[in-house]
Design goal:
With 74 residues, the chain is mostly helical. It has one domain. The longest helix has 17 residues. The chain is elongated.
């Protein structure tokens, strides 16, 4: 496992340590968990979640057609 150095404002560091202590963990573990969660969410395929949400809303996705210019502002 590698070590890294972070620059964190004093007030955030103090409050983060208090939060970690209150929740029975360490600041190190909190940072590891946050990074792990962030990377996992980024790698996650959101397609199935979007399809499920559209189904709940009653949207017929088979009728949806988008043009590239509609999706991106130029």
């Amino acid at each position: 496992m590698k070590n890294i150095t972070l620059s964190i404002p004093d007030d955030i560091l103090r409050r983060s340590r208090e939060y970690a202590k209150k929740h029975g963990t360490t600041l190190n573990q909190m940072v590891r968990n946050l990074l792990k969660k962030t990377v996992a969410e980024q790698e996650e395929d959101l397609g199935p979640k979007l399809d499920k949400m559209m189904d709940k809303m009653g949207v017929d996705t088979s009728q949806l057609k988008f043009k590239r210019d509609d999706l991106y502002e130029r």
